[in-house]
Design goal:
The chain is mainly alpha-helical. It is globular and about 65 Å long. Helix 4 crosses helix 11. The longest helix is centred in the middle third of the chain and has 36 residues. It has one domain. It has eleven helices and no strands.
Amino acid sequence: MDPQKIMYLILLAPGMILAISLHEAMHGYVANRLGDPTAKFLGRLTLNPFKHIDPIGTILVPAVLFMTSGMMFGWAKPVPVAVQNLKNPKRDMAIVAAGGPGANLILAIIASAALYLIAGVASRVPLADAVRQTVVVPLVMIFFYMLQFNLFLMMFNLLPIPPLDGGRILVGLLPLTQARVVEAIEPYGFWVLILLLMADRYVHFLRTFMAPVYWLQHYLVPSAILQQLIGG
């Protein structure tokens, strides 16, 4: 067991759990606002992670993959939406789908604000080196990983492949004939994702699509801020 990987998972866990919980809860919240109370009746409009986390898909599979290969891939319990309850099913499903990535962007911005706040306090309040290393640095890494994971989760879910959110948004934007073609991919979407992940080292599709993550990360937290917080 690599101690560095274990420490990374420990520092990542708070932001990851919040990201997944709010992502799923927001799907249910938006669906409820648009006329479908299914998620509300099932208790999914909550940040309680036990309502959203799949023990295998959210914890076991990502942890094993990360410890063995450095790659992280998983899933949460999907929030059920009764399409027939929506006033405009095609449009509203796209809005429901956009709620999850939107929540992740908000969390990334909150994490960025927290890092700037910590930087402002640390620059004005004298801190002993022991306090910096045992309190400030771990706190900074938790918020930085929170920002990073939320941006990654947002962009990954925006891949235009159903059943990912991006696929459902695409269905809502396309004319009906083309939308039905995209919808037909959904039963095979999981396997398409697996093939893309396996082939990424050759075709760089995912890395290209994820490029905005690194741009946004640098925009929200410039490297100078991180250096100030971690390096003192």
